[in-house]
Design goal:
It is a single chain. The protein has 396 residues and is α+β, with helices and mostly antiparallel strands. It folds into two domains: 224 residues; 155 residues, Reverse transcriptase/Diguanylate cyclase domain (Alpha-Beta Plaits, 2-Layer Sandwich), CATH 3.30.70. Helix content is 64%, strand content 8%. Strands 2-3-1-4-5 form a five-stranded mixed sheet, with helices on both faces. 38% of the residues are buried.
């Protein structure tokens, strides 16, 4: 069955798919509604597609075009795709290493132009480079998947990882001169099978990149909807969602309930700052506190803005003593930071109410209500105070 398929025709299809996709992506990127990586993604498809289409002219056009230029374009396409997806995944790209690899491969290809010979050497070299570029993309996608919990990025990492392994195997087979025939167009099952896998792989690559971009965009919009635009802290809806997720994760990991501290923090005299010194400086006070709060919190802690000058901090697995220490550090650091701003004699401080419960299961509202009561006591005591209330919220 496989031997009845024409290898050259399959490679024409392999070349046309990225060629057409590349044109579409580049055209879309000219609208300036997409990030630069989309243009690079399209360019990589277009350039690699041109290279593969040039390969199909072997035996009909000069070897310089169908061997050297064709292989060079395919490698450049791989290189640009690595750059594009590193940008998309927000990973630092090792320019010097990958560019040196690309230039070295192009240089070696200068000595392998004769289509009638050096077939195994060309395959070994090109496959090795493709394996390295694919592994770079796989690592970037995997890091993004873990960092942002994007599930399609795991699929993308798996696809490029599998491609890297496949190219390593092909490079080793070629290195030991175990490839059949003297051309990729030789009519045998191994070459036909590789060509068919390449068609499927190219389609899956591009589909998965697109799906990953869509999921990333959706998560970004959801993230914006759950965060305060000024301070980047969670809003109330974001806090509720984050607490719910934290509880679900704890249950799935069979972690026993532990003491949780919830802090409600109010910036004293904030209205006077806004009315007297203007909203711009008021915003600076808010962002200053937000930066300070984040610098004092762990990755598992939650930080939210309730609105106006009121903030909430959730400290899972924290006893009252530690919560009081955190509150004290926030007050001291905030006082130091505010002294550096042009406050014109005004001195905003922090009043903090703390509620301590044994678990957050269904008790967030209760904890917040008690923390609000503690905050009220801090205000009544003259502001710039910390008041704590310990509760027992464990369900029977």
């Amino acid at each position: 069955m496989l031997t009845q398929l024409d290898v050259r025709t399959i490679y024409v299809v392999i070349g046309l798919i990225p060629f057409v996709m590349g044109i579409g992506l580049i055209a879309a990127s000219t609208t300036r509604r997409f990030d630069q990586w989309v243009f690079l993604w399209g360019s990589s498809n277009l350039i690699a597609g041109c290279g593969i289409l040039l390969l199909t002219w072997r035996d009909f056009a000069p070897d310089f075009l169908t061997v050297f230029v064709a292989n060079t374009l395919v490698l450049i396409g791989y290189f640009i795709l690595s750059v594009a997806l590193s940008q998309f995944c927000k990973r630092t790209f090792a320019w010097h290493y990958h560019l040196a690899l690309l230039l070295l491969a192009i240089l070696v290809h200068c000595f392998l132009i004769d289509a009638s010979s050096h077939f195994s050497e060309r395959v070994a070299l090109s496959s090795a480079c493709a394996a390295i570029f694919s592994m770079t993309i796989s690592r970037s996608a995997f890091k993004m998947a873990r960092r942002e919990n994007i599930r399609t990025a795991y699929v993308l990492a798996t696809l490029f990882g599998a491609s890297s392994v496949m190219n390593i195997i092909r490079s080793l087979v070629a290195t030991f001169h175990q490839l059949e025939g003297t051309s990729i167009f030789t009519q045998n099952p191994s070459h036909i099978g590789f060509a068919l896998v390449s068609v499927i792989t190219i389609v899956l690559w591009n589909m998965c990149i697109l799906l990953t971009a869509v999921e990333h965009t959706n998560q970004a919009w959801i993230g914006r909807a759950l965060r305060d635009p000024l301070t980047s802290a969670l809003n109330r809806a974001g806090l509720i969602a984050a607490v719910k997720k934290s509880i679900e994760n704890r249950r799935s990991d069979s972690v026993p309930a532990r003491s949780t501290a919830l802090l409600v923090i109010d910036i004293d005299h904030f209205k006077i700052v806004n009315d007297t010194l203007g909203h711009a400086l008021g915003d600076q006070v808010l962002t200053t506190f937000a930066d300070i709060a984040r610098s004092h919190l762990r990755a598992s802690d939650l930080f939210a803005r309730q609105g106006g000058d009121e903030f909430v901090i959730v400290l899972p697995g924290t006893e009252e003593k530690i919560a009081l220490e955190v509150a004290g550090r926030l007050q001291r650091t905030f006082k130091q930071a505010i002294s550096l701003l042009p406050m014109n004699g005004l001195c905003p401080t922090l009043s903090i109410g703390i509620a301590i419960g044994e678990t957050l299961d269904g008790s967030l509202e209760t904890l917040m209500a008690q923390a609000d009561n503690a905050l009220y006591e801090s205000k009544q005591a003259g502001r710039n105070k910390v008041t704590s209330i310990a509760l027992n919220l464990t369900k029977p």
